[in-house]
Each structure stands twice: as C-alpha cells, then as structure tokens.
Specification:
By secondary structure, the protein is an alpha+beta fold. It has 2 domains: 137 residues, Gyrase A, domain 2, CATH 3.30.1360; 46 residues, no CATH class. 15% of the residues lie in helices and 22% in strands. Strands 8-3-10-9 form a 4-stranded mixed beta sheet, with no helix packed on it. A 4-stranded antiparallel beta sheet has the order 4-5-7-6, with helices on one face. A two-stranded antiparallel ribbon has the order 1-12. A hairpin with a 2-residue loop joins β4 and β5.
C-alpha cells in the first residue's frame, strides 16, 4: 500500500485583499492586472507592445514593477492577535520580480519567473490567503471597522489552503508505504515523481525512458 497526497495544506485565519494593499500604498492599480489564487499572486503591468491596449512605457514599467515589489516586501499585519507566526510581521514570505537582463523589458525570464508569470510574483505566509473574503468584509478582532474600499485584512469564510511557498514545512506532502517489499522506518523527504517508478520496481516492471523520477530504494527491502 502506498498513500500519497499531492500537496500540503495549512490553516489560515485572515483573508487578504491585494488590490487594497497596493492602492492604499499609492500604487496606480489601473495600470496593473492583479491575479490571485489562494496565497499566491501574479501582478502584470499593462506594458505597451506586450499587452493588448498596453499603456505603460518601458521606462515606467521598471519603476512600477519595483514599486509593487517594494510595497509587498514591506507589507505588515499590525494586529498582534494574528501576526505571531510572521517573520517581523511581514505578510509575504516570497516576492519575486521579472528580471530585465535580456534587453527587452517585460519579456525576460529566469529560474523563478517564467514567461506566463506576473511581472511580480508573491506568496503570502502561512495563516493568510487571498481567497475567502466575505462581502461585506468582516473585521477581525482587534482591527478597525472593515471598509470594503480600503480593508486589507479581514475574516475569511473558509480556513484552509495550499499554494504557499513549497519550501515551508506545511507544504510537504504525505507519503506512507506498507506491505511486502517495504522497509520499516522513516525517510526525510520523498518526491512525488519517484512514486510511480517505486511502484513499478515493486511490480517488476521496467520504466520507460520517458518516466520521470527514480525508484525510492531507501524505502524498499
């Protein structure tokens, strides 16, 4: 028997509004396309020559990308009832920007930012999520009244999510193996792509050259 989950899962207590976080920091959100899912966000600049109907020049593009990233890196939760697990109160555990070293601003990529990523990619820390904001928003205990036009952090209507930084312990997937051919004990880490080759090894099947991963010899007798 092999039992595997496809991702980790973490509880959250606060719904975040990225548009209000940026707008309250005086960022011109009319020049941005903001896409959020769970705790992850992609912010796209409406760049001339790249977006249909783009309005932002290449010169303004870099300044806007840097402004958005700076706001997100400085974003804090001042409410002591909720921010205890944050590093120095910072909302985002990960903020990445599109590089500009390829000679064509808005089109450069690296190992962190792919072609389809936003110009700024960010992930909230555990405990916070972009989904689940109630309408009208409901304030958290200890916060001021929640105004929909300005509220950044509020009480969500559900309380668990995946999609945080994959390096966080909470995002580790479950792996349990038992039965003939399986050793007793524990392993520190397992990659999901190694599960199929492990099953094939147990069944005596030789994986095709196109199969990713390798058999987990450390769990096999």
């Amino acid at each position: 028997m092999l039992l595997v989950s496809d991702h980790g899962f973490a509880p959250f207590h606060t719904a975040a509004n990225l548009t209000n976080i940026l707008r309250n920091a005086k960022v011109d959100v009319s020049k941005l396309a903001i896409r959020t899912s769970g705790p992850a966000a992609n912010v796209y600049v409406n760049l001339k020559g790249r977006e249909n109907g783009g309005t932002v020049s290449k010169k303004e593009y870099r300044a806007l990308v840097d402004q958005v990233a700076d706001v997100l890196r400085k974003a804090r939760d001042p409410n002591g009832r909720f921010n205890g697990d944050l590093k120095k109160g910072r909302l985002f555990s990960n903020v990445r920007v599109r590089p500009d070293d390829c000679g064509e601003p808005g089109f450069c990529v690296d190992k962190h930012i792919g072609q389809d990523f936003g110009d700024v990619f960010a992930q909230l820390d555990v405990g916070y999520n972009f989904d689940g904001q109630q309408t009208p928003p409901v304030k958290r205990k200890g916060d001021k009244a929640a105004d929909a036009a300005t509220v950044e952090l509020s009480t969500p209507n559900f309380y668990g999510a995946h999609g945080h930084d994959a390096d966080l312990p909470e995002m580790a997937a479950t792996f349990i193996a038992a039965g003939p051919g399986i050793r007793s004990g524990s392993v520190e880490a397992v990659r999901n792509i190694d599960v199929a080759p492990t099953v094939m090894r147990l069944l005596g099947v030789t994986p095709a050259a196109t199969v990713d991963g390798k058999a987990l010899n450390k769990v096999l007798k």
